[in-house]
């Protein structure tokens, strides 16, 4: 099973930017990003297919976040701009078949905390 390692979270002021990274230990088909706050279900943010680079975004990400991948380095990224306090969550990267449901992914990173202050 391919391992996912996420990094890049931190504390940022509202309106600021962060770039999350996700390293894959092997070949993958698609990478997804999800986020979760305490007591809530994991929420779809974005996913990208590795070969074609086709990207899909959830409502929270549209117009502000960009998902990308680097085939040569086997790295995925989530560029987050114009961050809002409601973006505060633990962000997870995952590898699998792609899609908007967590059940479509079988390898998950450890999560990285993103905190946006107002």
Oligomerization state: single chain
According to DSSP, the number of beta strands is: 11
Radius of gyration: 13 Å
Q: What general form does the structure show?
A: globular
Order of helices and strands: EEEEEEEEEEE
Could you estimate the helical fraction of the residues in percent?
under 10%
Provide the structure class.
mainly beta
Q: Are there runs of 5+ residues with pLDDT below 50, and where?
A: none
- How many angstroms separate the termini? 39 Å
Specify the number of helices: 0
The proportion of residues in beta strands is over 45%
Reported for the largest beta sheet, the result is: 7 strands, mixed
Averaging pLDDT over every residue, what do you get? Answer: 93
What does the model show?
The protein has no helices and eleven strands. The chain has 118 residues and is mainly β. The strands form two sheets. Strands 2, 4, 5, 6, 9, 10 and 11 form a seven-stranded mixed sheet that branches. Strands 1-3-8-7 form a four-stranded antiparallel sheet, with no helix packed on it. A hairpin with a 4-residue loop joins β7 and β8.
Please provide a brief summary of the model.
By secondary structure, the protein is mainly β. The chain is built from no helices and eleven strands.
Layout of secondary structure:
Elements: E1 4-7, E2 10-13, E3 18-24, E4 30-36, E5 43-49, E6 55-57, E7 65-70, E8 75-80, E9 89-96, E10 105-108, E11 112-117
Write a concise keyword list for the protein shown above.
single chain, 118 residues, mainly beta, seven-stranded mixed sheet, 0% helix, globular
């Amino acid at each position: 099973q391919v391992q996912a390692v996420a990094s890049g979270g931190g504390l940022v002021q509202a309106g600021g930017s962060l770039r999350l990274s996700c390293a894959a230990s092997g070949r993958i088909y698609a990478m997804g990003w999800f986020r979760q706050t305490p007591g809530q279900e994991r929420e779809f943010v974005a996913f990208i297919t590795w070969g074609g680079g086709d990207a899909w975004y959830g409502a929270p990400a549209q117009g502000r976040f960009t998902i990308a991948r680097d085939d040569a380095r086997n790295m995925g990224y989530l560029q987050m701009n114009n961050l809002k306090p409601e973006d505060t969550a633990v962000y997870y990267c995952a590898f699998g078949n792609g899609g908007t449901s967590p059940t479509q992914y079988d390898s998950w990173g450890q999560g990285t905390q993103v905190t946006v202050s107002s």
